[in-house]
Amino acid sequence: MPKIRTSRTKRPPEGFEEIEGILDEFAKKMRDAENESHEGKRKAESSWPIFQIAHQRSRYIYDLFYGREEAISRPLYEWLLKQGYADANLIAKWKKQGYEKLCCLRCIQTRDSNYQGSTCICRVPKAQLKSGTIVECVHCGCRGCSSDS
């Protein structure tokens, strides 16, 4: 959880108290993932839990605001984005068709791909892959975030 500066920052909008406990749980998970031992893991593999927790936290806030019940208000949603509780760029992609299940922004960046000008392998629909092929994203450990999978 990002630090909230009480001297410069306004108080959180109404409704923050209801979700504060869950956001604290995400913060604890994030601290545990950051402090976890990296022994025996590949270089990229050590950051996968951090990506996954950040994704879960952003998805939680997204679902609260854009879900069926609309559990949080717009001022609270914008405050959460401004304070860094959720990734605003990732949420902006989730609103677009074909990116509803996107795991991280690195998976759609063409410059980070093994093949010039393409996206990550986890973005390929599972129906187009060879049967029995296990897909695992190099960047975040995702096993497929294509909307068609």
Automatic annotation (TrEMBL):
Please provide the Gene Ontology terms (biological process) for this protein: mRNA splicing, via spliceosome
Where is it localised?
Nucleus
* Name of the protein: Maternal g10 transcript
Against InterPro entries, the record matches this protein to:
BUD31, BUD31/G10-rel_CS
Output the lineage of the source organism.
Answer: Eukaryota, Fungi, Dikarya, Basidiomycota, Agaricomycotina
Source organism superkingdom: Eukaryota
Primary localisation category: nucleus
**Which terms are listed as keywords in the entry?**
Coiled coil, Nucleus
| Annotated source species | Rickenella mellea
Question: Which protein family is named in the record?
Answer: Belongs to the BUD31 (G10) family.
| Coiled-coil annotated residue ranges, if any | 16-43
A GO cellular component annotation here is: spliceosomal complex
